[in-house]
Each structure stands twice: as structure tokens, then as C-alpha cells.
């Protein structure tokens, strides 16, 4: 119980059920959860069906009280920067037909008329991971995604009941792999000393230095308010940045804390061919730390 406004669910290749909830009361910003039995996902109104709670207790219960047994999100999805009203998650199981994103999750957003990616990492048995924008410019609000057997991604769209940047009331578009793979952040993984940021092609080693990667962090407060801004936003100094032997990954050392969202700005990185990163900002939710 405790779901607010889930617009879509998705089943992982391992058979686990995830859902994405939209920002609103008790939900600081949109988020994704792994559904588990007998868990509370943050929105107290569902306790009205629990005989142990009265409506008055639900209305007047403090954030601190409900926070004691609330389930933390797998990832937080920053408002506006990534999404306002995300839809269903779908896994890339195309075995490379769609590009180098196998196993990652694609999600559409109605308001922004875009698709973004999520890549999960399990640390100490707990899911967490990266969120990064993928593709903008759809004709209406991207809300339902589905891969077909050819590896194409179909995007069902609507602006009914909510505005969408695309401007049209509805749409159905197909995204296919065409031409060279764009230079993008491929993935971000937590390490015991920081993060490994991998890209879709070889990096120019000259661009790898302490000024190349900018890092900030924040957390989202648990509040009954209708959405909430980033709290305790701060710069995180990069202590070291080193390109790994694969030529596509930068290992950065930073101070680590749990219950934080780390923001990475990598616009200074160039590929070996001189290409800029298309989506230069990514966000990683830290629920657990890797043991050294």
C-alpha cells in the first residue's frame, strides 16, 4: 500500500514487478519502486482500508511517523529535468537490436514528450541506479512504451487530461536504431570509492581530468506537501578522475553518503572522434554503499 498515482507497471526479465509513481502530495518528485508484499510505499491515504488506522490518524499523522516504515525508491526521477509525469517502464531485451542498452529500462514522460533511461545496480541486495535523458521531440506525451520483435520501440502518446510539450493531442511513433551509435553516457555504477561512468564509445583521454566531471548531491524530503524541491544541494569535490583500460569508462573518487541523489555533469567529456555527449547530465540514487 502507499501508492499515489502510478501510471504504469513493468515486469523485469527476472519477473520482478516495478512501478513508477508521479510527483504530488507525499511524493517529492517522481520515483520508481520495486513492488513487494506487505510494504508501505509512502502515501498514507491507503491506510483508510486498514482497520488499525482511522481517517483522523491519516490526516494528522506526522511525516516522521509514516517515515519510520516507508519503503525507499529504487531511483528518484528529478522533476522537470527528467520528467513530470512518467509512464510505464519497459526493459530492453532486444539483444543489441536497439543499441548498446541491453538490460536497461526505458520510460516515457507525458509532460516533457520525451523518453529517459534507467539502469539498475543491486548493492547489498537493494536496487538503486542511474537516470538519464534519452530522446526528446515526440509529437505528444510519451506514456506507453513497448519493444517489438524487430527491436523497434513503439511510443504511445496522449495529452488528454494533461499538457504535453509535443503539442498534439495524441500520437504513435516508432523509434529504431539507425546509423552510428550516439555518444552518450551508457551507465553509472557505484564503487567503494565513488562511481564508474561509462560511455557508448571511446573517450578522448585529454579530456579526462578533475574539471571534466562536475558532481552535486541532494536528497528529497518526505513531506505531505504537493511535491518538494531538492534539499541540502551541495557540490561534491572530485578527488580523482581516471580513465579505465576499456577506454570508455571514467572512474571518479568522491565522498559517498546514503539516501542521496548524485548529479553528474559531463559536458566537458569528448569522444575520441571529438563528439560531445548528447545528454550530459545523469542522476544516481544511492540507497546502499559498496563494501570496500
Query: How far do the termini sit from each other?
Result: 35 Å
What class do helices, strands and sheet pairing give?
A: mainly beta
- CATH fold name of the domain at 185-286: Immunoglobulin-like
In DSSP terms (H or I, runs of 4 or more residues), the helix count works out at 2
Please give a handful of descriptors for the protein shown:
single chain, Immunoglobulin-like, 8-stranded antiparallel β-sheet, 19 strands, 292 residues, 2 helices, mainly beta, 4-stranded antiparallel β-sheet, globular
Short note summarizing the structure:
This protein is mainly beta and 292 residues long. The protein has helices spanning 55-60, 63-67, and strands spanning 6-11, 17-21, 31-34, 75-76, 86-91, 105-109, 114-123, 126-135, 142-147, 153-158, 170-175, 185-190, 194-199, 214-219, 231-235, 240-243, 249-253, 260-265, 281-286. β1 (6-11) and β2 (17-21) form a beta hairpin.
Explain this structure.
The protein has 292 residues and is mainly β. The protein has a domain at 185-286: Immunoglobulin-like. The protein contains 2 helices and 19 strands. The chain has helices spanning 55-60, 63-67; strands at 6-11, 17-21, 31-34, 75-76, 86-91, 105-109, 114-123, 126-135, 142-147, 153-158, 170-175, 185-190, 194-199, 214-219, 231-235, 240-243, 249-253, 260-265, 281-286. The strands form 4 sheets. The protein has an 8-stranded antiparallel sheet, with no helix packed on it. The protein has a 4-stranded antiparallel sheet with strand order 1-2-3-4, with no helix packed on it. Strand 9 (142-147) and strand 10 form a beta hairpin. The longest helix has 6 residues, at 55-60. The radius of gyration is 19 Å and the shape is globular. The two termini are 35 Å apart. The model has no long low-confidence stretch (mean pLDDT 94).
